[in-house]
């Protein structure tokens, strides 16, 4: 029985390797890749999930085939349940784009656990120039859709990020956490140094909604006013 058990495991491992090679190969025949996606999905094991995940790293023509394959991989991993959490988190750490991984985690893990993994990944990122900050922005846009007491302190440093979209998304996250008042000094400091009209409008909107006065930095803020906003007598931004 022990011999048969070992033989079975070796056989399964060999099968996974064969299917993994097909799934990860954008030049493979579509029907071969589809067959391997289905086979791995039916295994519902950690190793099978690891073999499925690389399909999210490339695009194939036609677009309908690409979408169908990715949808099938998504369903296969979700159907595997909690065994998929660890390999999906590991995939997030190395993938250039993590939007599919986040969608999967939202299906197989509790919300607080998903936020924890996103914040852990965000903690590894800095605010210096980055050629492609896509992962950072994907995390921030996801965090802007949920509320958690850990988020505010974790994201505020990205108000000083070199990337304009990161700064924009950071303001959105802080607004979603109702943290504009808590972080008003950092936000106003960001505003006074901000060249992007889009980011300044986003900051003015956040300050206006939270009814935060920009005093005693009113004069500096006036120099950063956009065409959409002015300050009332108390130094609170308001839309024209």
Structure write-up:
The protein is mostly helical and 240 residues long. The chain has a domain at 1-109. 62% of the residues lie in helices and 2% in strands. The chain has helices spanning 2-23, 30-43, 46-52, 63-80, 85-94, 99-108, 111-122, 134-143, 151-155, 164-176, 184-193, 197-210, 218-222, and strands at residues 229-231, 237-239. A two-stranded antiparallel ribbon has the order 1-2. It is elongated and about 70 Å long.
User: Rg from C-alpha positions?
Assistant: 23 Å
Order of strands side by side in the largest beta sheet? 1-2
Number of extended strands: 2
Which term fits the overall shape? elongated
Approximate strand percentage:
under 5%
Distance between the termini: 79 Å
The averaged pLDDT comes out at: 94
Give the fraction of residues assigned to helices: 55-70%
Contiguous low-pLDDT stretches (5 residues minimum) are 1-8
The major beta sheet can be summarized as: 2 strands, antiparallel
- Secondary-structure class: mainly alpha
SSE order in H/E notation? Answer: HHHHHHHHHHHHHEE
| Individual helix count | 13
Short summary of the structure?
This protein has 240 residues and is mostly helical.
Overview features:
240 residues, mainly alpha, two-stranded antiparallel sheet, 62% helix
Provide the fold topology.
Elements: H1 2-23, H2 30-43, H3 46-52, H4 63-80, H5 85-94, H6 99-108, H7 111-122, H8 134-143, H9 151-155, H10 164-176, H11 184-193, H12 197-210, H13 218-222, E1 229-231, E2 237-239
Antiparallel strand pairs: 1-2
């Amino acid at each position: 029985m022990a011999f048969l058990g070992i033989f079975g495991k070796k056989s399964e491992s060999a099968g996974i390797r064969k299917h993994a090679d097909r799934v990860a190969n954008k030049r493979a025949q579509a029907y071969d890749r589809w067959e391997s996606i289905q086979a791995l999905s039916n295994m519902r094991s950690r190793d099978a999930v690891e073999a499925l995940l690389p399909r999210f790293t490339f695009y194939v023509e036609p677009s309908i085939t690409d979408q169908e394959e990715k949808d099938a991989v998504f369903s296969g991993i979700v159907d595997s349940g909690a065994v998929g959490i660890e390999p999906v988190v590991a995939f997030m750490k190395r993938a250039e784009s993590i939007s599919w991984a986040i969608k999967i985690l939202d299906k197989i893990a509790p919300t607080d656990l998903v936020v924890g993994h996103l914040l852990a990944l965000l903690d590894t990122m800095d605010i210096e120039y980055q050629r492609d900050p896509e992962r950072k922005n994907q995390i921030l846009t996801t965090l802007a859709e949920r509320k958690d007491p850990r988020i505010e302190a974790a994201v505020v440093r990205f108000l000083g990020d070199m990337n304009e979209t990161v700064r924009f998304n950071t303001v959105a996250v802080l607004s979603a956490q109702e943290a504009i008042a808590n972080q008003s000094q950092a936000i106003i400091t960001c505003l006074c140094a901000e060249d992007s009209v889009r980011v300044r409008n986003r900051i003015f909107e956040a300050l206006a909604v939270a009814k935060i006065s920009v005093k005693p930095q009113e004069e500096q803020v006036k120099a950063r006013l956009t065409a959409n906003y002015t300050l009332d007598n108390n130094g609170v931004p308001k839309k024209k």
